[in-house]
Amino acid sequence: MKTQMRTLDLETEYKRLEDLIVTSKTFFLAGHLNPDGDTIGSMLAIASVLKRLGKKVRTFSQDPVPENLRFLPHVKGIRSRPPSSKARFDAAILLECSNPARGGNLEPVLKRAAKVVNLDHHKTSEFYGDINIVEPHSSSTAEIVYRLFYNMNVHVTKREAACLYTGIVTDTGRFHFPATSPRTLEVASRLLETGFKFSRVNDLLYATKACEGLKILGRALESLEMRAGGRLAVLTLLASDFKELGARSEHTENVINFGLMPPGVKAAVMFREEDDRIGVTFRSRGHLDVSAVAKSFGGGGHRNAAGCRVRGSLHDVREKIIAVLTGLLKT
Ligand SMILES: [Mn+2]
After folding, report:
1. Assigned fold of 211-330
2. Among 113, 159, 192, 269, which residue carries the largest CB count within 10 Å?
3. Rounded to the nearest whole angstrom, what is the distance from the C-alpha of residue 125 to the centroid of ligand 1?
4. Cα→Cα distances 165→103, 143, 160, Å
5. Ligand 1 centroid, distance to 40 Cα (angstroms)
6. Confidence band for 3, pLDDT divided at 50, 70 and 90
7. Band of the pLDDT at 313, cuts 50, 70, 90?
8. Could you tell me if 222 and 249 are in contact, meaning their C-beta atoms sit under 8 angstroms apart?
């Protein structure tokens, strides 16, 4: 692995990856920790195409695939155990990993791989691969993978289309976020033309939720408080809420986004009372940088989406963080 200049010609990199695919026989595919729809969808689509081309493929995710993605074809083939120390691959393709550590403990297998490929759309990518296809303006890695298949004249099957569509629709928040481009919609349209069960995929992704998840959402919404003159929404979940409803913190995914819904809200914060800490999730609109707040409490994230876990009582942590956010919202 060597670090390369960011000025690499993208077309050349695509061509080099195509050549690598043609000349290689064994592939290792890995995504990032806490995998999402884009990581898993892209991985499964590439694995399927490679297998159709007669290649041997090993798919790997150190963390388990989230429950709502387990309907994807061949998802059970994704292993959480790293390959043995004897396993050697002609190519290792990393999806959505700004650096190899994002994929977990991949160092041993990457060292033994003849070539490492970095396929990503995050602008923080470190160009660690022998081949780097990094497109920060792409809505998703799935959109990049579609372009690769298109360049290779690969006909996309219904199942592969369902995987790539899942990547695009989840990463764009259902074609909602600013990274959604005319090209994104064009790719989605081409995928739809394959005739995969579009409505069924949407149903499984967006209209299916565990009872515990629904109940904890209800509890969180009931707790909604408006602060900072209506510019800050606060959601609070107690340890007793989780216990009573049989819910776990994974059931609270996306709950924070409801906090941004009341008109006039600039930021939302959710507090979860956990065993020894308070889990805090932030969302904001526009220029308000909640990652800076999260960072000052030992966490991190993006400008508009961040989180941290803080020691202390719910009351103290809550008041401290609300005070900081209220201060920021005054300016
Ligand atoms: Mn992505």
Report:
1. Diaminopimelate Epimerase; Chain A, domain 1 (3.10.310)
2. 269
3. 12
4. 22, 9, 9
5. 10
6. very low
7. very high
8. no
